[in-house]
Amino acid sequence: AQSVTQPDIHITVSEGASLELRCNYSYGATPYLFWYVQSPGQGLQLLLKYFSGDTLVQGIKGFEAEFKRSQSSFNLRKPSVHWSDAAEYFCAVGPYGNKLVFGAGTILRVKS
Amino acid sequence: GAGVSQSPRYKVAKRGQDVALRCDPISGHVSLFWYQQALGQGPEFLTYFQNEAQLDKSGLPSDRFFAERPEGSVSTLKIQRTQQEDSAVYLCASSNRGRDTQYFGPGTRLTVL
Predict the structure, then answer these.
(1) In the predicted model, what is the mean pLDDT of chain B?
(2) Distances from the Cα of A27 to the Cαs of A12, A35, B59, in angstroms?
(3) Is B73 exposed, middle or buried (0-12, 13-18, 19+ CB in 10 A)?
């Protein structure tokens, strides 16, 4: 069965530091992969997606992610974090039968 | 419209009451999804529509949950005889085609007392 693992429940980084959020997936075919961000009381906003082609994908707000098939990973990165990046980040795989499977999320805290 | 909208944003129900949650998808989007997000968890799939047809309802946790989309646009998720374990944020998403990016609404936070 398909699944997504986000090993880090919480991550704290200093403003201006680099960021990497980990995501590992289990999926039976070539995956469609997504990163969403959720601020408190808000819905999910799409940061970026991978469907095919170049394994390094660029998203909004300066985020990027790299698809590594051999490691079943799709880690999210940002070279310099801003205080406004504090939120919860979700990795998702799919659609499998047109449904997305989400990880449990990683809460990012940014300290000044 | 500009995005997916959901109403109400917050709903408090007494255990045993019925509730109805509404989703207005992005205009022209044929696919509509409902997800349930419990506190501290990622969203979990409930059901999926393509136009007015409910193609997948495998995620509905019990027969107390019912969803409809009679005219292929607005959808309603109904929960009968609410229980405390139904407390969660209910998210609606729409997409242009079944395999395209899903765009999410702000969610309805349901609290069952």
Answers:
(1) 94
(2) 29, 16, 18
(3) middle
Contact list in A for residue B35 (CB cut-off 8 A) is 100
pLDDT at A39 over 70: yes
Does the distance separating the beta carbons of B101 and A100 come in below 8 Å?
Answer: no
Q: For residue B106, is the peptide bond before it cis, meaning its omega torsion is within 30 degrees of 0?
A: no
Which token pair is A112?
């000044």
Name chain A contacts of B102, Cβ cutoff 8 Å: 100
**Confidence tier at B98 by pLDDT (50, 70, 90):** low
Contact B33 A36 (CB under 8 A): no
Q: Is the pLDDT of residue B99 over 80?
A: no
With bands split at pLDDT 50, 70 and 90, how would you rate the model's confidence at B1?
low
Of A95, A99, A102, the CB nearest to B42: A102
